[in-house]
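TL;DR need structure tokens for one chain.
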Amino acid sequence: MKKLLRVLAAQMFATAFVLAAVAGPARADTPPTDAELAAEWQEAWDTHKFYKNVPPAPGSGVSRASQSISIEINAPAQQVFKKYSDFNNHIGRAAFLKRVATHKEWTKAGVRYRNLTAIEDVPFEGQIVSLHTHAQQRLHLSKLFYETDTWSLPGVVTHQKIVFKKLGPQKTKVTEHLTFDAPDELIDFTVANGVASHQQTQAALKQAIESGQL
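>> reply
TL;DR here they are.
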């Protein structure tokens, strides 16, 4: 049942993606180049300013909702932080995620910045729709937390703060603080689907880290 719900949710999101008509859906058999993705990322950054964590204005047609989820992983905090924060490790564990294109990385004042695009291939009406989520990740290396801001069609923005708390030499609590901004008619769906997706990824990363696969 959970798998069916995830598929239906993905199809709903793909429908919203197509109806947005901001850009035509990319087919998975003609993947964009990294240069094309970087250009998309820059346009999203400049146009939608998804890095600004400003609540939507009343009457704007956009709503905000937040939720936090946690999981305990039996491994040292530094190890968990390193493995968990590498989005390439989410491939095959996050639903539909196929690739992560990193456009730029740099370090400033102890914070590691990454500009990237996550590519998800979602089945929709017998075809594969490629969804692009543009993001900036900021890793606070000495404080064991990272932040990520994302934008994707049809105008969905997320702000995430993922905190790694040492519970013991071999146990770490990971808490994801998630904030979603989405069109009013999509906010409930966005939160439910987004939280479920993050919970699935949490569980998969826990298994992979604890088993030594990562």
